[in-house]
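Lecture 7 notes: from sequence to structure.
We start with the chain below.
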Amino acid sequence: MTLETGSSLAGLPAYAYVDEAGQLPEAFQGKIGVYAIFDQAMALQYVGYSRDVLLSLKQHLVRKPSQCVWVKAQISDRPNRTELEAIRAAWIAENGTTPPGNTTEDDSWNQPIDVKQQMTEAEQATYAAAPDELTQIKLLKQCARRVEAEILEQLRSRNVQTEIRFNPKMKETGLLDLKP
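Predicted structure tokens for the same chain:
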């Protein structure tokens, strides 16, 4: 799956984000490269680069499950940041418009999920009225577990079989992110 440097985005093959066996593209595990994520309609959603493309794809799948349907990638044997950034910029330019994940939705693609933004009105009221920090932490963990369960259900509906494990320590702060 090693590709020539300078390949156009259009010239790269598209791989199913989740294959028929429910796995992400294992060939990208531990590989350094640039990748492009597409939705069901093959509309470009995000372009990034990573030291472990598969790990990054897992993070994006958890954060944006409905937008992660197809992926294209260019793996680099001798990577340098300048080259990776140049490829990413070229792919975005080739697309004609900057994908939402590289502009207005950048944080939702790249930062841990903030469960405070997904609290119900009842959870927000309970959190605001909490008598102490320990009670707030407990509520954040409960909310994080609820959001985690919703995400895992979405992934199950797509037959994702790849192991997804969230970092339990981050739940106390109201954030969801995968365990490294």
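Points to note: Residues 113-176 form one domain. Residues 1-5 have pLDDT under 50 and may be disordered.
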